[in-house]
Amino acid sequence: MADIAIRSPSRAASTRAVVAVAGLLALGALGLRLADPQRVAWVRTYLVIFGSLLIQALPFVMLGALAAALVEVFVPITTLERLGRLPKALQLPAAALAGIAFPICECGSVPVARRLALRGLAPSAAVTFMLAAPVLNPVVIASTFVAYRGRSAMWAMVGGRFALGMMVAVAVGWAIGDRSQDDLLKPNPQEPHGHAIELGRPEPRWRRFFVHLSNDFLFMGRFLILGATLAAAIQTFLPAGILEGAAGIPVVSIVLMMGLAAALSLCSESDAFVAASFVQFGPSPQLAFLVFGPMVDAKLLALYGGTFRRGFVRTVVPTVALATLAGTLWLGVALG
Amino acid sequence: MSEAVATRLRSRSESRPRRRWSPPRVAGTLVLAAWAILFWFLLATGRDAFYLSTRTDWVVPVAAVLLSAAALGRLASARVTEPEPLRTRELWAMAAMVVPVVLVMALPPATLGAFSAGKRTGFAGAGFAASAAGIGSGELTLVDVAAAQTTPEGEAALAARAGETVDLVGFVTRYPDTPADEFLLTRYVVSCCVADASVAQVRVVNVTPGRFEDNEWVRVTGAIYPLGREVIVNASAIGAVPRPERPYLTA
Questions:
Q1: In 3-state terms, what secondary structure has residue A298?
Q2: Which domain holds residue B124?
């Protein structure tokens, strides 16, 4: 078998360790039931937000893993090679526009992009797709429309989010440049690298499909849990009114809204309703919230940390931040 | 003839390597199954209403089916010819993935309460355009009352109904500066999940001091008086009610 853990330096777990872990989980469940820590207000708030983030986001990770497994097992390599043969100038915009066809939020787009890169799509194009899909897909555009319906800035927000989202995603792809798959992606210890899933006779397609599906889910899921742990803590303790004083200062208000988007870690399909609630901020800071949040947030940073090598985050975060800042400032001037 | 077939089958089975259970794949199956059970549990008990809005609760049955299929598929492919051991680090990672399942299923159902009311955005600014026609006629709900403040037309439509009797359900919230004979009747409005909850509140006056605790669910009947950004309900009757099956409103 090649659920290859060859690279993992960790020791093999003994049967006793497995039993101990199972026992700990059972004891924990019993202890929680008896002690009910939710009687403490902040613990209850934290656990409700933590649970809701996961219950909403994990199905999208599953859908992303499903799409990724379909790509891996059923999309012929020639299709991806054809995309790779597009002229460089067209590759990144084409990858960004492909995001329109994927109605998945940011958690789901990471496994798809990773799988596309593993299958041979230029890593810069895969990253462009990953960042664009959660902003450009029709569900997100529709929710932005609904959230801003009846406001004078409605079309500026809907159109601005689409255009700026695409521009920022392409800018990041451009910043990634010619980095190779090995430079960008961390190996998944659960997954074979460069050879068939099972050594010897190739596994049937259905087995490969389920192994890829579950490997991707298990790989991404743990980082989502890490991100939700952090995001729930921020949501529990950060008062919404803390930013109000800075709402009128142009650059500061944009940077603050980007920071807030990163801290709150909302799903891109619902963030427009929250962005629209910050009425004290103008359209530009709200747009920054809508573009930056689906590309960089607490749970995504955990997912990126697990998927990509360290240099990736060092490239993506400043590029997304600078491009979003520049774009929203320009739009602010254009909108008057 | 039959012996020839038997020999051929035997030689084929001897040439095919024997498959054994792969511990990492079995462990992965258990994690997937745990999450599948959680989503079936949410669906069966209706507890998804404590985490998601009615707009997004479709993810629960979808996830339950997908995770169940993934668990079964992984189990079916868990016998391999060269099993690797389950590494200690993987074991802990898998266990960590089960912790949220344990948390949700072991603890009694809970909702956001008064603690976070002061920390979250007010619904009045939450960007849900209210239909002035909807506010101007029919029974007023807490969402109508709060959403009326999003547009001047909505505000005017609500102002025109000053003095009418409303019947609202929410939980009791008090801030340090809330007078003893008042409280804020609060309800969270959720768009996707609780993480995006915003607050819909009205100030209830004419309350018997000390009668209701923070977080207690109550039904308030009384006359409504919109005063600019604040909406006051002069209570004629307040009674404790059980927490609604859908504690969050959806806008």
A1: helix
A2: 114-250
